[in-house]
From TrEMBL:
Domain of life, source organism: Bacteria
Coiled coil: none
InterPro entries in the record: RsmC/RlmG, SAM-dependent_MTases_sf, Small_mtfrase_dom
Keyword Transcription: no
Protein name as annotated: Class I SAM-dependent methyltransferase
Gene Ontology MF terms in the entry: 16S rRNA (guanine(1207)-N(2))-methyltransferase activity; 23S rRNA (guanine(1835)-N(2))-methyltransferase activity
Originating organism: Cohnella soli
UniProt KW Methyltransferase keyword: yes
Record lineage: Bacteria, Bacillati, Bacillota, Bacilli, Bacillales
Length: 201
């Protein structure tokens, strides 16, 4: 089976479902589909990241690997004077995220299919968020870390959620190598998930 949630065009037949989720006090109506990440509901890792992420009200935010949009849409709500850009290699996921923004009246957002940062390579952001695609392999995840540093404004932050058993220690070591040991901090943990914040000085 080569139809992963990180395929650009999932081949699985569409099978949409809609559910409600309350995230950071915001009730969202979300539609997911076959061939996208965590189709049956907002996954626990994303929920942990959403609970801990700190989004300034005027921030320019990038959600890398947005799926059908829960992290990026909450970030947009938390930055009413800012703007969130949601990207994913999965074109079905991007279309869902766009529809979910419309369904919830969230307008300070834009969406684009993107292989990691390819579609935003000329832009910089105040905050980058990601529940990284662990199953895509360590090389992809480490590239995400490295390119996040290049896409952050000075003083900007990268927020990552990762499970301890899925390589949190090695991920943190890589982030410290990129950002500097003093700029990488574990800011939350829950049921084996760790939220790591990295600051570009």
């Amino acid at each position: 089976m080569n139809d992963h949630y990180y395929s650009s065009q999932p081949k699985s037949a569409s099978d949409k479902q809609t559910f409600e989720a309350v995230l950071r006090g915001h009730k969202l109506k979300l539609t997911s589909d076959a061939g996208v990440f965590s189709r049956d509901g907002v996954d626990y890792g994303s929920r942990v990241l959403i609970e801990h992420m700190d989004i300034p009200q005027q921030a320019s935010v990038l959600d890398v690997g947005c799926g059908y949009g829960p992290i990026g849409l909450v970030a947009a709500r938390l930055a009413p004077q800012g703007h969130a850009t949601l990207i994913d290699i999965n074109e079905r996921a991007v279309a869902l995220a766009k529809a979910n923004a419309k369904a919830n009246g969230i307008e300070n957002v834009t969406f684009t299919p993107s292989d990691l940062f390819s579609a935003v390579a000329d832009r910089k952001f105040d905050v980058i968020l990601s529940n990284p695609p662990i199953r895509a392999g360590k090389a992809v995840v480490h590239r995400l870390f490295e390119e996040s540093f290049d896409r952050l404004n000075p003083g900007g932050t990268l927020w990552i959620v990762i499970q301890k058993k899925q390589g949190a220690p090695s991920a943190r070591a890589k982030l410290e190598e990129i950002f500097g040991e003093d700029e990488v901090e574990e800011v939350g943990k829950d049921k084996g998930y760790k939220v790591i914040r990295c600051k570009r000085t």
